[in-house]
Design goal:
By secondary structure, the protein is of the alpha/beta class. The protein is built from twelve helices and ten strands. The longest helix is centred in the middle third of the chain and has 27 residues, at about 235-260.
């Protein structure tokens, strides 16, 4: 396979066993390079981490489940440094190319997985989603992406970042394939989902779209959506601040000692995020955890009425040549929408919906926890 998109890590080819027959036979699988894969090192987007990495003796259970179902492994994919970014612009290993809009970012941190699926280099791919790292790249690359209910997929053998938000997610080019893989990865749903053919629409999230994005998505929203409802409770800024504080405290707890000891050459964006994160106090964390409980209860109450149609991010992907300040500002705006599912540990499925100046932008369904496969099936019917 010729990697014309820089989607894969340039690792030596190592055979990875998969079942000769199974429900995923005939599908090719790529895996984000924060999952352990037997016979491979795990670089986590960092040349220092890669140099320190031992060859994995076994694959992460999430990846192994897909291999045992017959999917054929084709490589480990690029990720942002320590998976701590939404841009996909890794200065150490290069940025993958967005096949749908080559002048735009792929989004991160599951950048390589999204590019590989969008470019036809594999059929399905594993990524992770902490603050939007499956959902944003899926929207930017014009493909399907899925963040599961928090805790439904094992993260054993996967680099942690923010443990109370981290999830293992999937990419595919169509809803049927995504559902096929998700059923193998998740098993039976833990809760039923109302089969509303006209889901309610997150009006307060739509109000945060830029004018071009709102106009581009209007036809799909008119065709698919129903009554308005609000999800940004109590408000977007409170949810965003809650997410940012908890992400900062947990990411520093996960990687701070290693960063201080190794002094790795961090990219400007990751360095900016780390420096800001180290200033967040324990008191702020306690306040944010209380706010998260209240927000989760509010979201659960709304979603008891069924799935909600919502934008994924506020705009299409920005240009690859944007500077660090622009990338930081875009990511902050995107997180104000992406944080909703993360705060409450809810499943969210992304599907292609429109273009803005030729660049894809997706829509999504957010559902009650435990309704993952039914949510994907509902999105496939709608889309």
């Amino acid at each position: 396979m010729i990697d014309r998109l820089n989607a894969f890590m340039p690792y030596p080819p190592v055979a990875v066993a998969h079942a000769a027959a199974g429900p995923l036979s005939g599908l090719t699988l790529a895996v984000k390079d924060i999952f352990d894969i037997a016979g491979h090192r795990t670089g986590c987007g960092s040349p220092v981490r890669l140099a320190e990495s031992a060859v994995a003796a076994r694959s992460a259970p999430a990846a192994q489940a897909l291999l045992d179902a017959g999917a054929r492994f084709v490589g480990k994919t690029q990720t942002d440094e320590l998976a701590w970014s939404l841009t996909g612009l890794n200065p150490h290993f290069g940025a993958p190319v967005n096949p749908a809009a080559p002048d735009r970012i792929t989004g991160g941190s599951s950048s390589g997985s999204a590019a590989a699926v969008a470019g036809g280099l594999c059929d399905i791919a594993l990524g992770t989603d902490t603050g939007g790292s499956v959902r944003a790249p899926a929207s930017f690359c014009g493909i399907w992406g899925f963040r599961p209910t928090w805790g439904r997929v094992s993260l054993e053998g996967v680099m942690p970042l923010v443990p109370s938000f981290d999830t293992a997610g999937l990419f595919a080019r169509d809803g049927a394939t995504l559902l096929r893989a998700a059923r193998l990865l998740l098993g039976e749903d833990a809760a039923p989902l109302r089969r509303d053919e006209t889901p309610r629409v997150a009006a307060d999230m739509l109000a945060r779209l830029g004018p071009q994005a709102r106009a581009a998505l209007a036809p799909a929203l008119a065709r698919l959506g129903g009554a308005p409802v609000d999800l940004l409770a109590p408000d977007a800024e409170t949810l965003h601040d809650c997410f940012d504080v908890l992400q900062a405290r947990e990411a520093v707890a996960t990687h701070g000692d290693w960063i201080e000891a190794r002094k790795p050459p961090l990219s400007p964006l990751v360095r900016m995020r780390y420096d800001l994160a180290t200033r967040v106090t324990a008191a702020a964390e306690a306040q944010a955890r209380a706010a998260r409980v209240a927000a989760t209860l509010a979201l659960d109450a709304v979603l008891a009425g069924g799935a909600v149609l919502a934008p994924v991010v506020h705009d299409a992907a920005f240009r690859r040549d944007a500077d660090a300040d622009a990338a930081f500002a875009f990511s902050a705006a995107a997180r104000r929408l992406l944080c909703v599912a993360g705060i409450a540990g809810l499943p969210q499925v992304v599907f292609p919906a429109a273009t803005v100046d030729g660049a894809p932008i997706g829509l999504s369904l957010i559902g009650p926890r435990g309704t993952d496969c039914a949510l994907i099936a509902m999105a496939a019917r709608l889309a």
